[in-house]
Recover the amino acids of this structure.
């Protein structure tokens, strides 16, 4: 067990919720890409509610939008950790940041592919 793991039960859940909200706040305040993706979600998710598609297709349209937010949060976390370690240019740091960016590119491409497949069906 990690010495940094302290609480159990309801207290742990409440603490985790607080940490999650702090992470969302930090991402929204400090990451332009995250704010842009929130805007994309604010546009696309309501649109999906008015489309003439099945419930499963609607769930998929919404899920891929939320997935891009998840990937951006992870990408931002990797970038923050790399910057915390060192701001010096290093090939491994560049690789880590580039791979996070590539993951986000794939997630955004997935939005386009899924929405196109469902809408053009």
């Amino acid at each position: 067990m990690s010495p940094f793991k302290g609480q159990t039960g309801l207290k742990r859940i409440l603490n985790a919720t607080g940490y999650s909200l702090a992470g969302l706040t930090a991402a929204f305040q400090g990451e332009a890409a995250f704010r842009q993706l929130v805007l994309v979600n604010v546009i696309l998710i309501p649109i999906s509610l008015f489309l003439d598609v099945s419930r499963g297709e609607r769930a998929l349209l919404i899920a891929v939008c939320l997935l891009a937010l998840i990937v951006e949060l992870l990408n931002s976390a990797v970038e923050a950790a790399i910057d915390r370690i060192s701001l010096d240019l290093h090939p491994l740091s560049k690789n880590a940041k580039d791979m996070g960016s590539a993951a986000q590119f794939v997630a955004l491409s997935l939005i386009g592919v899924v929405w196109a497949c469902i809408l053009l069906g």
In short: The two ends are 50 Å apart (CA to CA). The chain has a mean pLDDT of 94. The chain has one domain: 32-120. The helical segments are 9-30, 32-50, 55-85, 91-120.
